[in-house]
Amino acid sequence: MKISIVIPILNEAATIGKLLSHLIQNASNDNLEEIIVVDGGSVDESQKVVNTLSKDIEVDIKCIPSKKGRAVQLNTGAKAAKGDVLYFLHADSFPPNHYDDYILREITNGNNAGCFRMKFDYNHWWLLFLGWLTQFRSKRCRGGDQSQFITKRLFKQIDGYDESYVVYEDNDLVDRLFAINEFVIIPKYVITSARRYREIGVLRLQYHFFNIHMRRWMGASSEDLYRYYKERVVN
To answer: Which pLDDT score is estimated for 90?
Structure first.
């Protein structure tokens, strides 16, 4: 079995090169089929960074275009992937050393989907608490920042990411995996950036995320969630 890593990006020139180097340095080339960077229309140097780095690396690294939208970009990358296992990763999240071995070990043990635990790169009490929560096997403690591995076969069976979600797409996928008892948490940590918390404010951003989750639990549509996100978070 080999892993196809799928990374959706939009204007990530400052981060994507560091992540790609990290992925290569902390895994065995024998376990990686490819790294697919799915660009949603970057206007910075993101594509140039990826294409330049790909010339000097033994692992197949490619940058492919897509319509903007994380769910759309993730599905686009999955369709292009050749590996048996898909590993979806945010551009500012860095998995642990030997992440490839941990993922393939779970697959061998019959666990076809799951994630890592997570820590933020910012020493704020609330973010430390959120990271602590990721050890528990609850879908309420999950998020895309923890990354997501899944066999290509299972991904196709559950019809991939729901592209009607512009936000909350990771949680929707996790909800469906929990419903069929196909989820495991690897007790190693992804280190993810707290840049959005720094920009907006930790408690303010968490308040909006809580509202998004509550609205979803109360039956809000994907359009309603995106409207709230655009009005309260992006702006």
So the answer is: 96
Between CA 225 and CA 196 the distance in angstroms is: 18
Tokens 């309603």 belong to which residue?
A: 224
Nearest residue to 137 (alpha-carbon basis) of 90, 103, 187: 187
Q: Backbone dihedral region of 218: left (phi > 0), alpha (psi from -120 to 50 degrees) or beta? A: alpha
Give the other-Cβ count within 10 Å of 219's Cβ. 7
| pLDDT tens per residue across span 59-79 | 899 999 999 999 999 999 999
pLDDT of residue 234: 66
What is the distance between the alpha carbons of residues 204 and 176, in angstroms, rounded to a whole number?
29
65 beta partners: 39
Low-confidence ranges of the chain (pLDDT < 50): none
Could you give the CA distance from residue 129 to residue 131 in angstroms, rounded to a whole number? 5
- With the C-alpha atoms ordered 170, 167, 60, 46, is the resulting torsion angle positive or negative? negative
- DSSP secondary structure of 144-169: GGG-EEEEHHHHHHTTSS-TT-SSSH
pLDDT at 213: 76
Phi and psi dihedrals of 7, rounded to 5?
A: -125, 110
- CA distances to 5, 92, 93, 207 from 21, in Å: 13, 13, 13, 34
Residue owning tokens 């559950």? 158
